[in-house]
Specification:
The chain starts with 6 loop residues before the first helix and ends with a helix. It has an eight-stranded parallel β-sheet. It is built from 18 helices and eight strands. The protein is an alpha/beta fold. It folds into two domains: 250 residues, no CATH class; 103 residues, no CATH class. It is globular. InterPro entries: Amidohydro-rel (IPR006680), Metal_Hydrolase (IPR032466). This is Amidohydrolase-related domain-containing protein. One of its GO terms (molecular function) is hydrolase activity.
Length: 426
């Protein structure tokens, strides 16, 4: 690597071990084909996914990188065919061993049907045990399903009031237990999907909360599906979580920005969280997914609120390379580098981890190298940023107590040396 302009920076960016601070379990072998593989490169659904996503710049880039990995023709169908011929353990290993990820923080709330591998199964691909992130809306739904028995029928404001009382006790106990569990690294809320990020920082009236719970349970009786999307009740869940998380200094992750069509885009900007952030200054808050396309708003919040941190994940591989570069530039415009975290948002397919890692490492190197080249940073300062965003910040914020496994990163980089050579030929 002696021909690289900034050799120490390149070594750090491509070999330093990483903590994946937000990710999801892989599908089990039995269910590996349950979802359209095009979901690797897009959050779209239906024909917008299967017919349109393959024509994006992000898909063209992912196709090239995966064709190099699998040794097949550089086209989407060839990649799908080749991966389909591999035994599932081999497929997972081929992708995961190239990431240099030392620890996974897994949100298993996507899997309500038992189609994914369990959290401990993923430890074979990392040198530190995986940790769990619990999704509060799923915890709430499970408690309500368990408690909603005959005595709460018919659904009226009176039975909803009684249910809310018993639910609140159980929910508080469950989150407190989780806060004290060393295997659980933090909480996550998807209120962005359900009712938006404009969460009321102070409590609504008890009657409003009871009425919203009554509507949710009435719909459950009609459809057989419990889906909490009532604003007063969902906001209530977030406030309880923020209180407990602040007491125990457990981070709360919020989905922000980039998501599928279930999100109301205008309510997905983290700027809506500002009153909540002010109301709970002792609660660590992680803004996920670069808050794309609201990255600058997220960087501002992380700059002015001591308890706010910014994750730059999911844009790898969903956004084009130039888009990724622009997002990272926006993150670095204002956000302190001791408050930036990295993740893959890996899910379902092992390729999400592989692409999420190699693309992030490549863009991180390139953007920081540009800054060093313009004398905005010294190379040592840039190396320090790499260490912080890939490992040290997550290690500190989630209180993981890990030491970086330097050998892990070195071995991973050797396995995708061809990708590295492509970077350094530029």
């Amino acid at each position: 690597m002696s021909t690289i302009a900034f050799e120490q920076l390149a070594h750090a960016a491509f070999t330093y071990p990483a903590i994946d601070n937000h990710t999801h379990p892989l599908l089990s072998a039995l269910h590996k084909n349950d979802f359209a593989f095009e979901g690797l490169v897009s959050e779209a659904q239906g024909s917008a996914l299967t017919e349109d996503a393959i024509h994006t710049l992000s898909c063209y880039r992912a196709t090239r990188q995966l064709s190099e990995l699998y040794g097949c023709a550089d086209n989407w169908e060839a990649v799908k065919e080749k991966r389909g011929l591999l035994q599932y353990p081999e497929l997972c290993k081929m992708n995961m061993e190239r990431t240099g990820i030392q620890c996974l923080l897994l949100d298993d709330g996507l899997d309500d049907e038992g189609i994914c591998e369990d959290i401990n199964w993923h430890d074979q691909f990392s040198s530190s045990p995986s940790k769990r992130i619990i999704r509060i809306e799923i915890i709430a739904q499970n408690i309500l399903k368990e408690q909603f028995v005959q005595k709460y029928l018919p659904v009226t404001i009176n039975t909803a009031s009684s249910l809310l009382s018993t639910f609140s006790t159980a929910f508080d106990e469950e989150l407190t237990k989780a806060a004290q569990d060393p295997l659980i690294a933090g909480y996550k809320s998807i209120v962005c999907y359900r009712t938006g990020l404009d969460v009321y920082p102070s409590s609504a009236s008890l009657e409003d909360i009871e009425e919203s719970l009554m509507r949710a349970m009435s719909l459950y009786l009609q459809t057989g599906r419990l889906w909490l999307a009532e604003k007063h009740f969902n906001d209530y869940l977030v406030r309880i979580t923020m209180e407990i998380a602040g007491k125990y200094k457990k981070p709360v992750q919020f989905h922000t920005g980039l998501g599928d069509s279930d999100i109301t885009l205008t309510r997905s900007s983290p700027a809506h969280l500002q009153p909540l952030l002010s109301a709970f200054p002792n609660t660590p808050v992680i803004l996920l997914h670069s808050s794309y396309p609201f990255t600058r708003e997220a960087g501002y919040l992380a700059a002015v609120y001591r308890n706010v941190y910014l994750d730059f994940g999911e844009i790898f591989p969903l956004v084009s390379k130039e888009g990724q570069r622009n997002v990272l530039r926006q993150v670095l415009e204002l956000c302190p580098t001791n408050k930036i975290l990295w993740s893959t948002d890996g899910h379902w397919w092992p390729e999400t981890y592989y692409l999420g890692t190699i693309q992030a490492r490549e863009v991180l190197y390139e953007i920081l190298a540009e800054s060093v080249g313009r004398s905005e940073l010294t190379e040592q300062q840039a190396v320090g940023i790499v260490h912080r965003v890939l490992f040290e910040n997550s290690n500190r914020i989630y209180s993981l107590g890990l030491e970086p496994d330097l050998e892990l990163g070195e071995e991973a980089a050797k396995k995708w040396a061809k990708v590295l050579s492509n970077v350094f030929e530029k």
